[in-house]
Design goal:
Layout: H1 9-16, E1 31-32, E2 44-46, E3 51-54, H2 62-71, E4 75-78, H3 82-88, E5 99-102, H4 113-125, H5 128-141, H6 143-155, E6 161-164, H7 171-182, H8 187-195, H9 197-200, H10 205-212, H11 216-219, H12 222-227, H13 233-247, H14 250-258, H15 262-272, E7 273-275
Parallel strand pairs: 3-6, 4-5, 4-6
Antiparallel strand pairs: 1-3, 2-7
């Protein structure tokens, strides 16, 4: 599936109509992180209808806003930088009843021409080791942003939220992995969720390529542009190894970079999980 040519439209449509994908008009790559079994707690699974991930929301339609209300989403965390929001003219929307919090992983100074050139070179390579350098940067910078999301889970277990970056892949994928690791979800299942972004982004393929073609590196190198679509499960598995080896595991990372303690982590884990038996009656899980 991770060949970088366009995916079969019927295959994409079929996949997008199934859990964990959620249809929200004007937004791509929306997924529910619920229903994943916990390896550490065999009788528990991640809570459905609570944590959602997606790409940017700037194109959400009125119909999509109604869908937010139906899903009960009352809080959005936008991980994008001020620089990229301005560059692509994609401000966050106003959605009645939804609090949108801007919690950028990277600050303006992290978007200097030199930094962006290096980051684009890493993305363009499509290599797993390049993504590990990128994801290590996300971990090193993202503690305050991720801490805000984790505190929501700790303090508001009954208020569904959504977090997103631009594509809903890298920064979004890192915090999704952190949450799922805290819930004890198996690495393979986390990697499979990550890889679904390959499908979730497909409806916006033309728009993404149009954006990339405005960047000199990608305009002159179509293969590099196509590598921006890569979303392999082995990349996430390598990231989870990185999290363990460089950061001493998810709990140690959370304690060091977000300032949360063991009691907070225990509460977060409890709020992320529900009895697996409760999901058995639903055909989605």
């Amino acid at each position: 599936m991770d060949a970088l040519e366009p995916l079969d439209p019927q295959f994409v449509q079929d996949q997008l109509s199934r859990h964990p994908f959620v249809a929200v008009a004007g937004v791509i790559n929306v997924r529910d992180l619920g229903g994943l079994p916990s390896r550490l707690y065999p009788n528990l699974a991640t809570k459905p209808g609570y944590l959602y991930r997606s790409a940017e929301l700037s194109g959400i339609t009125d119909e999509g806003k109604v869908r937010f209300k139906e899903l009960g989403i009352s809080q959005v965390f936008d991980l994008r930088s001020d620089t990229e929001i301005a560059k692509y003219n994609t401000p966050g929307p106003e959605i009645d009843g939804v609090q949108i919090s801007h919690v950028p992983v990277f600050k303006k100074e992290d978007y200097s021409p030199e930094m962006m050139a290096k980051r684009y070179q890493l993305y363009a390579s499509g290599k797993t080791e390049a993504f590990m350098e990128l994801y290590s940067q996300i971990l090193d910078h993202g503690g305050p942003s991720f801490g805000t999301i984790l505190r929501h889970v700790r303090d508001r277990p009954n208020e569904p939220c959504l977090f997103h970056c631009t594509a809903g892949k890298d920064r979004t994928g890192v915090i999704a992995a952190i949450l799922l690791k805290l819930a004890g979800v198996d690495n393979d299942a986390i990697a499979q969720d990550y890889a679904l972004t390959r499908i979730g982004r497909e409806p916006a393929r033309a728009m993404i390529m149009e954006r990339l073609n405005k960047e000199p590196l990608f305009a002159s190198n179509s293969e590099a542009a196509l590598n921006m679509f890569t979303c392999r499960d082995i990349t996430m598995l390598a990231f989870l190894d990185l999290l363990e080896e460089k950061y001493s595991g998810v709990e140690a990372y959370v304690r060091r970079f977000t300032g949360l303690g063991d009691e907070d982590i225990a509460t977060i884990r409890r709020n992320l999980l529900v009895p697996a038996a409760d999901l058995a009656a639903s055909s989605k899980y």
